[in-house]
């Protein structure tokens, strides 16, 4: 039975007229987390999570052929081996940043190996299926959640589901006591496994903050990225990447992560769906607006606590604090807020609109990136 809140979403989707949703919901019960993931992924080119069924190819059967020609009436065994079944392979591609091309591909089936032939002919190898994914993709077993491998290099290949081995031909089974074996091995069956491909963005700097903290505005000013910017919460629904130019033709990658609210690690707001992207960032830039209703330390502690609740290892990453919208402060307020800054973290005051303090911020980020390396 669906809960009341799930039924509300169900009928809302029906009113909108998304036929694909109606078909899916008719066959299974979706949790609220599933609904949140499905709804947010519609109309977006950024896909960081796909669940896919991978079936490797069956191995070909060995041949039990006995040699015959016009000069040989009763030749010995010459049956060849069966061909290997095709693998399902994952390959890293630095030109990709989303798994949109895999979004609607739920079943991947590799080719079967061919049967062995006479004259020790080996059967053909089954055709491999290659899935190209962005760098930073993790493959998991859908049932156990265990991490199988991760792709971090361009051109790196890993076998997700290996094909079945080809059977041995009767040539392998000849002996002094059995000179004409009339049997051969069948091919090994392929595997059918549900896997999860999960993308964690690789970036040098990850922006962490509450909604409307100025993260997207900063990214749009220091890079050529064009994230959506508006005066309401959760404008950013998917991560955005930008290349930030630095001195002497140097640059680094900055990732704008959707806003975090208190309780995000427990599923509130956009939940922890995008928190995983922070795990791969070298440096975390905490952004707190100058017009916040809390003290700077309170906001910083809440953000840090959410990261620690999600993954305790995140608190060991290098951190920098940026107070945004500082153009709203006069000298007196600026002096007061400097007294409220958390201890043991480099901090700076910036204004993306007024282009204030951005060069100093880049210097801090560049130094932390190189120190962490």
Q: Distance between termini?
A: 51 Å
Question: What order do the helices and strands follow?
Answer: HHHEEEEEEEEEHEEEHEHEH
Using the alpha-carbon principal axes, give the shape.
Answer: rod-shaped
Number of domains: 3
- The name of the CATH architecture of the largest domain is 3-Layer(aba) Sandwich
Q: What spatial order of strands do you see in the largest sheet?
A: 10-11-9-12-13-14
Strand elements, count: 14
Fraction of residues in helix: 10-25%
**Which class do the helix and strand fractions yield?**
alpha/beta
Beta-strand content estimate: 15-25%
Radius of gyration: 29 Å
Remind me, CATH topology of the largest domain?
Rossmann fold
Structure description:
It is built from seven helices and 14 strands. It is α/β, with parallel strands linked by helices and 373 residues long. The strands form three sheets. A six-stranded mixed sheet has the order 10-11-9-12-13-14, sandwiched between helices. It has a five-stranded mixed sheet with strand order 3-1-8-5-6, with no helix packed on it. A three-stranded mixed sheet has the order 4-2-7, with no helix packed on it. The protein is rod-shaped. The two termini are 51 Å apart. 38% of the residues are buried.
């Amino acid at each position: 039975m669906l809960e009341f809140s799930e039924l509300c979403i169900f009928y809302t989707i029906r009113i909108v007229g998304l036929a694909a949703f109606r078909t899916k919901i008719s066959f299974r019960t979706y949790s609220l987390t599933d609904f949140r993931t499905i709804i947010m992924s519609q109309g977006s080119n950024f896909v960081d999570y796909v669940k896919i069924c991978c079936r490797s190819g069956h191995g070909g059967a060995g041949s039990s052929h006995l040699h015959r020609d016009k000069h040989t009436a009763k030749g010995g065994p010459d049956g060849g081996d069966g061909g290997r079944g095709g693998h399902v392979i994952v390959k890293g591609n630095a030109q990709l940043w989303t798994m949109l091309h895999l979004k609607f591909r739920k079943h991947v089936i590799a080719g079967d190996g061919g049967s062995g032939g006479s004259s020790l002919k080996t059967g053909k190898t089954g055709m491999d299926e290659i899935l190209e994914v962005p760098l930073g993709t993790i493959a998991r077993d859908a049932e156990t959640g265990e991490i199988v491998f991760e792709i971090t290099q361009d051109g790196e290949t890993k076998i997700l589901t290996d094909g079945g081995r080809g059977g041995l031909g009767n040539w392998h089974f000849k002996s002094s006591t059995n000179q004409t074996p009339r049997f051969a091995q069948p091919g090994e069956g392929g595997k059918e496994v549900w896997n999860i491909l999960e993308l964690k963005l690789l970036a040098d700097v990850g922006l962490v903050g509450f909604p409307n903290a100025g993260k997207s505005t900063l990214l749009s000013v220091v890079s050529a990225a064009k994230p959506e910017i508006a005066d309401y919460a959760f404008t950013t629904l998917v991560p955005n990447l930008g290349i930030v130019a630095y001195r002497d033709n140097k640059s680094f990658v900055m990732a704008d992560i959707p806003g975090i609210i208190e309780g995000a690690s427990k599923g509130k707001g956009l939940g922890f769906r995008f928190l995983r992207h922070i795990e791969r960032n070298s440096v975390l830039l905490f952004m707190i607006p100058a017009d916040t209703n809390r003290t700077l330390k309170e906001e910083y502690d809440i953000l840090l606590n959410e990261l620690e609740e999600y993954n305790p290892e995140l608190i060991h990453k290098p951190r920098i604090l940026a107070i945004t919208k500082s153009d709203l402060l006069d000298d007196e307020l600026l002096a007061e807020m400097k007294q409220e800054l958390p201890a043991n973290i480099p901090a700076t005051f910036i204004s993306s609109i007024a282009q204030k303090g951005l060069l100093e911020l880049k210097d801090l980020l560049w130094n932390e990136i190189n120190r962490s390396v």
